[in-house]
Amino acid sequence: VRATGTVAFDERAVSVVQSRVAGIVEQLHARAPLTPVAAGQPLLTVLAPDWTAAQEEYLALLRARTPGLDPLRAAARQRLVLLGMGDAQIRAIERSGHAQTRITLTAPRTGVVGELNVRDGATIAAGMPLMRINGLDDVWINAAIPEAQRSRVAPGAMVKAQVPAFPGETFEGMIETVLPDVDATTRTQTARIVLKNPQH
Fold first, then answer.
1. pTM higher than 0.85 for the full model?
2. Other CB atoms within 10 Å distance of the CB of residue 173
């Protein structure tokens, strides 16, 4: 069976970047959609008053000499964790004794910026999606299978794909599933083919 198709992101390899606190985007490090990013790379810096207030509260409890404050200190530390602060960051403010006023959000995976919802100076709310990172380890090809040939196509079948952008190269993949809907205009069904993409 020969069919045409389109290359698409693997929708399972998607990570949404969001801030756990309200704030203002001070600086975008990844400024455009489809910018390549590596896991752990800074994406944006957020000025976050709520983040600072929680740190100040925790530091004040650490400095206090009143007995019986251990449960309050533990609760204040847990609040920092819930606001998105890692153990290394918490230890850093414990050592320095000063609150950090800015949060740097980093890429949760290697891939590209699939969606960018903010700009420098934007006000953001807690939980608001800021970016979407699409992984590139695998890609999908959505191939249009003519209805008359549908019986010859099954999940698990191996596929060879050729792409005009890479003349002479053949990519191997496997049919993961045949989607159940039939396009009423073209009388085709979509086969989702998964291809490894080691060179991204």
1. no
2. 21
**Residue indicated by tokens 């995976």:** 109
Which pLDDT value is given to residue 88? 83
pLDDT tens digits, residue range 36-49? 999 999 999 999 88
pLDDT for 124 equals 95
**Positive or negative, the Cα torsion across 22, 23, 29, 32?**
positive
| φ, ψ at 62 (rounded to 5°) | -65, -35
- First-residue to last-residue Cα distance in the chain: 27
Q: Is 12 exposed, middle or buried (0-12, 13-18, 19+ CB in 10 A)?
A: exposed
Could you read off the pLDDT of 77-105 as tens digits, one per residue?
999 988 878 788 899 899 999 998 888 89
Q: Which of 137, 127, 142, 138 is nearest to 175 (CA)?
A: 142
- For residue 96, give every residue at least 6 positions away whose Cβ sits within 8 Å of its Cβ, in sequence order, or none: none
